[in-house]
Design brief:
The protein is mainly α and about 80 residues long. Helices cover about 80% and strands about 0% of the residues.
Length: about 80
């Protein structure tokens, strides 16, 4: 039991640290770019809509909408499949 707890603590530390860093980053972006907090509600609406229609959209269209290139994931797949 102690082994599980001791291995979980660094993971929890990293997750909490990432949340804190993201919170600070968004606070600075919002402040210095004069972005209203209400914009995040609109972002959440758009993201929720994208998730709901994800089943009817092809993978390439989803990646393009999110601004993610497929090349890194394909390279990773090749490296994993052909060591």
């Amino acid at each position: 039991m102690d082994d599980n707890v001791s291995s979980f603590q660094p993971v929890l530390f990293v997750i909490v640290s990432e949340m804190l860093v993201d919170w600070l980053k968004h606070a600075f972006i919002t402040k210095f770019n004069h972005v209203r907090a209400s914009v995040y509600g609109r972002y959440m609406d758009v993201l929720a809509r994208d998730v709901l229609i994800a089943g009817s959209v092809s993978g390439a269209q989803r990646s393009k909408r999110r601004g993610v290139s497929q090349a890194p994931s394909r390279a990773w797949l090749i490296l994993v499949d052909y060591p």
